[in-house]
Amino acid sequence: MKGILIDISGTLVTSNGVARSTINAINKLKLKGIPFRICSNASKESHNKVISDLSTKLDGIDLNPNHVITAISSSKSYVTHSNLNPLLLLSNSAKDDFKDYSSDKTDYDSVLIGLSAESLNYPNLNNAFRILNQPGSQLIATHASKYFADKDNQLSLGPGGFVKALEYVTDKKAIICGKPSDEFFISCLKSLNLRESDWKDVAIIGDDALSDLGTSLPLRKVLVRTGKYRRGDEDKVKDLYGIYDTFADFVDSID
User: Fold this and answer.
1) Tell me, what's a Pfam family for it (predicted)?
2) Under a CB-based contact definition with an 8 Å cutoff, are residues 162 and 125 in contact?
3) Which of 20, 40, 67, 80 could form a disulfide bond with 8, CB atoms 3.0-4.6 angstroms apart?
4) Are residues 158 and 208 in the same domain?
C-alpha cells in the first residue's frame, strides 16, 4: 500500500462522532509509514473550519492542514485561477473562504453552488438561472452528491439535485470541483508525492459508492459500511477492491 485517500463524513466521522478505534487506526498508518491525505466533499463549512473541527475530533492526532483537501478549497482554487466573479450559493461559513467576492456585486459571470439550506431557495436559484443564461457564464459545483448522512443518521438532500436542475434549465454542464471529479483526485494524489505509476497502489476509502469511489482512476476502491452506506451500495462500485465494516477494520487488514 503506497498511500490512502480518506473521506471524512461517514468514514472518519459518523453521527456517533469519532470512535477511539479510528484514532488508533490513523496512528497505525503513521507507524507503518503509509502516507495519507484526507479528501472531503465538505462544502457546508469553510476549509479552515473543516480542519479545525476535524482536529478537535481527532483528539491527540497531529493533523497537517496541508494534508486536508476539501471541495470548498478546490472550488476556491478554480474560481481564483479562472478569474471569475460567481454568485455564491453557499452557507455563511463556506463564504468565509470567498471574502474577496462581494455579494453586493451584480456583474456575476458564474454561479457556485454548494451544500447550503439557507441559499438553495427559489429566489436565489432563479437569480442563478438568469445569470447562467448569459453567454459564457459558468455553472460550478463544489460537488454534486445526491444526499448525505445527517446528524440523525438519516439521509438528507445534497446539492446534486439542485445542480442537475440548473443544468437542465440552462443546457449547461456543471464543472464539478470535488469528488468524484478525476481532477480533484489527481490533485490529492499529487500531494502524496508519488510516481504516477504508483497510483494503482493507493487506496481510496469512503462511505459513498458514487461520490467517494466514482473515479475512473486506477485506485484501490474501498467501501465502508458506515455513514450513508446502505445495503447493496457495493454493487454500484466498479472494480471494488474491498468492503469493511469500519475505517479501522480496513487499516487492520493492511499487511
Assistant:
1) Hydrolase_like
2) yes
3) 40
4) no
Answer whether residue 47 is part of any domain: no
**Torsion angle defined by CA atoms of residues 209, 191, 251 and 213, in that order, rounded to the nearest 10 degrees:** 10
Residue-wise pLDDT for 179-224, tens only, equals 999 999 999 999 999 999 999 999 999 999 999 999 999 999 999 9
Tally the C-alpha atoms within 13 A of residue 131's C-alpha that lie toward its C-beta.
Answer: 26
CA 162/CA 165 separation, integer angstroms: 5
For position 185, what pLDDT does the model report?
95
Residue 38: the pLDDT is 95
Rounded Cα gap, residues 213 and 194, in angstroms: 20
Cα torsion at 30, 177, 148, 27 (round to 10°)?
0
Q: Are 179 and 185 in contact (CB under 8 A)?
A: yes
CB 87 within 8 A of CB 133: no
Range(s) of the domain holding residue 225: 3-41+179-253
What long-range pairs does 101-109 form, CB within 8 A, spacing at least 24? 108/137, 109/84, 109/85, 109/134, 109/136, 109/137, 109/138
Model-level pTM? 0.85
Give pLDDT, residue 102.
58
C-alpha cell at 126: 432563479
Q: Looking at 136, 158, 176, which one is the last position of a domain?
A: 176
| Residues 6 or more apart in contact with residue 62 via CB below 8 angstroms | none
- The pLDDT tens digits of the residues spanning 70-128 come to 999 999 999 999 999 999 999 999 999 998 765 556 789 999 999 999 999 999 999 99
Q: Which of 141, 131, 184 is nearest to 161 (CA)?
A: 141
- Residues 164 and 98 reside in one and the same domain: yes
